[in-house]
Design goal:
The protein is mainly beta and about 600 residues long. Strands 1, 2, 3, 4, 5, 6, 7 and 8 form an eight-stranded mixed β-sheet that branches. The radius of gyration is 69 Å and the shape is elongated.
Length: about 600
Amino acid sequence: MLSRLCGLSSTVFESCSKNYVRLVKCLFLITLVFLTVPSISGVGYVIVRTSRPVYYAGDPVVVIFQSTHPADIMGTASIIVSGPAGTVTAGTANVFGGVTYQYTISGSFLSIPGYYTVRVVVDIVVETYEGSASFQVVQRTPFDFTVSISPLTLTVKKGETARFNWAVTYSDPSYEGTVFTWDVSGLDRSMRVNVARGVLDIATSDATPPGTYSFTFSLSARGLTRSATATLIVEALFDYSLSISPNSQTVNIGEEASYTVTVNLVSGAAQPVSLTLTGLPGDISYVFTPPSGTPTYTSTLKVDASSSSSPGSYTLTVTATGGGIAKTATATLIVNEKDFKLSASPETITVEQGDSTSLQVEVKPLGKFDKPVSLTVSGVPSGVTAKFTVPSGVPPYTSTLNLNVALSTHEGPYTLTVQGEGGEKTHSIKVTLNVEKKPFTLTVHPEVEGIKVKVTGTLTPPLPGAKITLRYHSHTHGEGEEGETITREVNVKPDGGFSDEFTPGTLGEWDVRASLSDDEGNVIAVSEGEYFTVEKSFVNELSLLMSRNPLILVLPVLAIIIAAVAAILIRRRRKIRPGPMQGPVYCQNCGAALKVEDEFCPSCGARKS
């Protein structure tokens, strides 16, 4: 072994023993070896691993190793690979102990799928160090990928930038890091697109039209193109308009004025807008209803001058604030002094034809008004009488306007104008009078007693004192002739009832019908026709005849009276004139004596002869 350390053959070594100098040199070298390599006694090792546990067929394998031999000694490392195709030495390298080395191995022997072992053997002349690691070779999946984008929908305002995130999923993790080219379609030309790793930024501008944009994001690599779609909604910036109407109003101290404030949405997503008012003195109050809202909306501005003592002209400034935008609109309010005000209650009244109604007219002073005010009314329809209970007075006062509506008043709405005049001021108010048709109903019921007909009826609702016309018509007449018609009038009682007794001039079938007319003769209610029959009999004929000629009934009575008087006179004459003497009279049947006055025999009952 010493001859090996010295690099000499045994023959040369023996010759060195003969040479002292050379012997000392060899001993020195031997001593140096044993002094400097005391730690390698026994078996050393090499730390070995690969860059990953699994490789695709044909991929280079990176072997990472570190020998544990002394750092100042250089050795030779052999990298040996064993696999399904056998064992091959992939290469060698000079290495120092304690230093980490990487060695890349490649070749067709790594193209067969399976399990492999790589061994690293380090030879430092006096000792051998060894280590190993295992890895797997698998068949590679064909290149492919998918693209995803999020969020799927994003909303921005015009001028803002929308940021989307994108990601790629590979068919195999080994394709990670592939370089792609990208493209975006479906956006407006005014938009600017920037693509970075995993990020897609779309910048809109003031020129970008608001709307919904469905766009496609595409990536291409190795001849493949994959896409994902998303939606970008661009909203216009919020804006609104403000207006007030009317532009000017005039009120008196004590009155109220109303304005309509309109807030219209012009563009963008609606945001709440609130309203405020300036320009009024402290004794005039106001209120917005509602005070805020989301455009488009309207608000009623009511200005109350009932407590005001500040006549004059005022510029009202309405300020709207919302969405970081403030807008104003102006109107004028003129407040007059020392006046009066009219009001009516109710402002609309409804009455039926033939009835009465009323309303209250209130006259109030405004400020220190103290002049008399006279009331008049116009627009009263025909057939209606109108009268104020208090036609004139110094405010404050209340007057009742009584309205009497005739049956002849046409139905419909009428506008009455109540006017007040006083202190060189004139004001008027409007009230509505609705005249409705009276829903009258008439019924009749005839009853026949002999030749007399009793008719009863009802008017609903009652109209006491109204005249009802009864029309009787005969249906007994010759062919081609018109039956007899008789018209009679009766008055309505307080309960709505009415009655009549009628003796027809013709026996047979009749009908009766009732009607009600207004003051102008217009028929406003008619009953159904009711039929009745006066029987044709001797008694009825005689009764009818006597009803027509009362003397016919008197003459028979006179004849009877005359006949009775004549009979009495004749009897009296007979008693006064003496008759011839007669003897006793006997019954010829039984012989019994009979008296002069006997007509029959009291014994046998035979007639006196």
